Amino acid sequence: MSTPSPAAPVSPVVLDVWCELQCPDCHTALTDLAALRARYGDRLDVRLRHFPLEKHAHAYDAAQAAEEAFAQGKGWAYVEAVLARTEELGGRGQQLLLDVARELGLDAEEFDTALIDGRHMLIVDADQAEGKAIKVTGTPTYEIGGQLLDASKDQSGVRTRIEEIADRLLAEQNG
Fold it and tell me: What is the pTM of this model?
C-alpha cells in the first residue's frame, strides 16, 4: 500500500514593485499593496525595487535610506512612512529621512552614516539598471509572472490584473 505523497510546498508568487519614494503615485499604490498582502499573505512576495527618477532631488537618498531600514528590520514601515510625506521630502530631504528613522525607533545615526558612505548604492543602482533593462519608465510599475504593468499614469485596474496573474500562477503550482 502506497502512502500519498505530501503536496509540494507552494512557492510564493513574486511581485516586484518598481517604486520611487518621492512619488505621490507610489503613495497611492500602497492601498493596492495592502489589499494584495491581505488577500495573499505569504503566498505573495512583494519586493520593493528602486527606480529613483531624476526629477525628484531626494529620491536616490530615499532609496538608500529604505535599504538601511530593511537592514534594520523595518523596511516596509519606513517606505510607507516616507511615501506618506512625499511633499515634505521634497522640501526637507535627508533631514526628513533621518526624522522618519527616529520616529520608527531605528538607528538614525546609522542612517546618516549609510547615506554618507553609500553602502546601499549598489542595490539602488542595480535595481534602476534592471528596471531600465526591462523597460520600466515610471513609477509605480509592477512585474509579476514576466508581465510588466505600468501604473505610473493610471492605476485603475492594475490590482485586478495583478490578482488575475497571481491566481493563475498559484493555480499552475497546484497542478
Answer: 0.89
